[in-house]
């Protein structure tokens, strides 16, 4: 009986969380429930809603004032040092080389869909792991980042001219997203739109926003955009810190190497092994759409059953601990 009550509560809270995000959160709405389930990562809605509740009031908005975090001064005052190391990577072709199809860095589960738009990245650190390649190739930037304890992850992010990233959001709310302009068009035609609010990048200027709001990027200029992109620790109370601890363990599994001297996380290794199967499924979609749909629904059903099994096991563990 106790287990049934707990499961009913979790199911009800989960549905309410999804409904809140779909219907009320932010100013930008999803076009349909189908888009929400494809892009909104509803599986994380319950914990994300708790984090929104447990967050300090000053970050409960899409775009956040960076000046209230004095530790970010270290990045602002050293932006030219960081820029020079990023440009050195770009000019020697490293940003392009490490992101070539088939390289370890290309199996990036979190940012895989961006590559088709010409977007490129170079990891500096990621949720507890410091990239060996970055320590060798960008030592000054790595040293600067090490002084800021609330930086969970960091990378250089490159975007070519006349390109875009369609609207999307990040799945987990443990961090806020920080951008520092390094070499940008310095034009209103190169911008990010976060929940209806536009921000145009400028060299040496920074931005902090909640990446779990819908956002999209457009570079309608002929010049590329190069920025430092960081995950900045979401300020939360003690209850939020417990959730964040679990989320950060999950994010640690998503570490992606730049080169062979870096370690990859569990998600990176799994994605690398299943990519050939995904490619075969795409080919099947073109040749036999009915078979592709049967395969798709079977795999999704098995994933849901696996997730349900994990949730039930977790609930039983909690029930055993409190009994």
Mean pLDDT: 89
Q: Can you identify the CATH superfamily of the domain at 63-264?
A: B-lactam Antibiotic, Isopenicillin N Synthase, Chain
Largest sheet: 7 strands, antiparallel
Distance between the termini: 12 Å
Shape: globular
The number of helices is 11
What is the strand tally? 11
* CATH topology grouping of the domain at 63-264: Jelly Rolls
Strand content: 15-25%
Entry summary:
This protein is α+β, with helices and mostly antiparallel strands and 323 residues long. Helices cover 45% and strands 19% of the residues.
Q: What does the secondary structure layout of this molecule look like, with pairings?
A:
Layout: H1 2-23, H2 33-39, H3 45-54, E1 63-64, H4 73-77, H5 79-91, H6 94-97, E2 120-126, E3 129-130, H7 132-137, H8 139-146, E4 151-159, E5 163-168, E6 175-183, E7 190-194, E8 197-200, E9 206-209, E10 215-219, E11 225-233, H9 238-252, H10 266-287, H11 289-322
Antiparallel strand pairs: 1-9, 2-3, 2-4, 4-11, 5-10, 6-9, 6-11, 7-8, 7-10
């Amino acid at each position: 009986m106790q287990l049934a009550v707990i499961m009913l509560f979790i199911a009800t809270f989960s549905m309410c969380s999804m409904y809140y995000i779909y219907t009320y959160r932010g100013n930008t709405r999803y076009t349909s429930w189908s888009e929400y389930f494809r892009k909104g990562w509803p599986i994380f809605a319950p914990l994300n809603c708790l984090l929104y509740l447990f967050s300090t009031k000053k970050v409960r908005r899409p775009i956040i004032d960076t000046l209230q975090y004095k530790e970010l001064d270290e990045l602002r005052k050293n932006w030219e040092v960081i820029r020079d190391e990023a440009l050195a990577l770009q000019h020697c072709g490293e940003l392009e080389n490490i992101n070539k199809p088939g390289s370890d860095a290309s199996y990036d589960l979190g940012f895989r869909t961006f590559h088709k738009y010409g977007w490129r990245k170079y990891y500096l650190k990621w949720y507890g792991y410091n990239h060996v390649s970055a320590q060798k190739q960008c030592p000054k930037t790595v040293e600067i980042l090490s002084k800021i304890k609330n930086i969970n992850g960091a990378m250089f992010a490159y975007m070519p001219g006349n390109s875009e990233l369609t609207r999307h959001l990040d799945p987990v709310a443990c961090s806020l997203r920080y951008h520092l302009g390094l070499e940008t068009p310095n034009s209103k035609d190169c911008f990010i739109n976060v929940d209806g609010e536009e921000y145009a990048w400028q060299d040496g200027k920074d931005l902090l926003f909640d990446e779990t709001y819908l956002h999209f990027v457009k570079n309608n200029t002929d010049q590329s955009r190069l920025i430092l992109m960081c995950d900045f620790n979401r300020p939360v109370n003690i209850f939020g810190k417990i959730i964040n601890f679990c989320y950060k363990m999950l994010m640690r599994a998503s570490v992606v190497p730049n080169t062979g001297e870096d370690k990859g996380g569990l998600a990176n290794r799994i994605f690398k092994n299943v990519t050939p199967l995904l490619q075969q499924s795409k080919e099947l979609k073109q040749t036999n759409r009915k078979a592709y749909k049967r395969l798709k629904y079977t795999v999704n059903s098995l994933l849901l059953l696996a997730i349900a099994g994990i949730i039930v096991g977790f609930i039983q563990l909690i029930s055993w601990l409190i009994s």
